[in-house]
Write a structure and sequence with these properties.
alpha/beta; seven-stranded parallel beta sheet; two-stranded antiparallel sheet; 45% helix; globular
């Protein structure tokens, strides 16, 4: 008879595409662990399970937004207060984009995002909010007609780009800057084609533009033509005209 120890050393079990041998063999079967009513729940926090969650977020986002007409994503600060010029500009931009034939997509939060959604809704257009899970609860603003909440920033940012024909960027903080530079990088590297980016509010954006020109381009970290990837304006009609003109091309 063979040694039982030898048998254990060469024991193997296939679990779908995975082969396990010797000490790596797990007791029971996959179905058994699925159907057991008791057991360790830590598996819901493992990377393979996260992949499924990520996949489900892409599927839900694609399904919710696939039938949108052409759209523009509007970004801006969640801290923009109502009854301020920036908030009023957001309302006018949202309405003007609808009048130009676009749906309006925002991050779904308060402030500038709420203003753009409000403008779109009041113009009887399609008002979309793509929310994000944060440690401090925001929730989707009341002017959102189609809303999707995401766990993962990178899935959400994919939706902003995939289902929009361009960006209008109102004054905002770190989140707005993240979205702006992501879009600039995608256009610069050719990952998206002819994607207009309009910065609204020259007084707010002038310092950033000067730094890009004088420091980033000036030190050879970017090229002069990269400054043509975006436009700066203080005029609502011009902002809408710029994104419309670019998307028509």
């Amino acid at each position: 008879m063979g040694n039982p120890q030898d048998a254990r050393e060469f024991e193997e079990r296939r679990q779908g595409p995975v082969l396990r041998r010797r000490e790596q063999v797990q007791p029971g079967t996959t179905d058994q662990r699925l159907l057991d009513t008791e057991g360790d729940s830590e598996w819901v926090h493992t990377d393979p399970w996260r992949v499924m969650r990520i996949q489900s977020e892409f599927v839900e986002g694609f399904g919710a937004l696939a039938e949108l007409p052409k759209a523009i994503s509007v970004f801006g600060s969640a801290r923009t207060k109502p009854d301020t010029p920036e908030y009023e500009a957001g309302i006018r931009i949202g309405g003007a984009l609808v009048d130009a034939g676009f749906a309006v997509i925002t991050g779904g939060g308060p402030g500038a995002m709420e203003a753009a959604n409000r403008g779109a809704r009041e113009a009887r257009g399609i008002s979309v909010g793509l929310g994000i899970e944060l440690p401090f609860e925001q929730g989707l603003n009341q002017h959102v007609d189609i809303g999707v909440n995401f766990r993962y920033f990178f899935v959400r940012k994919t939706m902003f780009v995939k289902y929009a024909s361009g960006f209008v960027v109102l004054p905002g903080g770190l989140g707005t800057l993240d979205e702006l530079f992501e879009a600039l990088t995608l256009v610069q590297t050719g990952k998206v084609t002819r994607f207009p980016i309009v910065l609204f509010g020259s007084a707010y954006w002038s310092g950033l533009v000067d730094w890009l020109r004088e420091t980033v381009v000036g030190q050879g970290k970017a090229s002069e033509r990269d400054l043509l990837l975006f436009h700066v304006t203080d005029d609502v009609d011009e902002a809408v005209s710029l994104v419309t003109k670019e998307t028509e091309r």
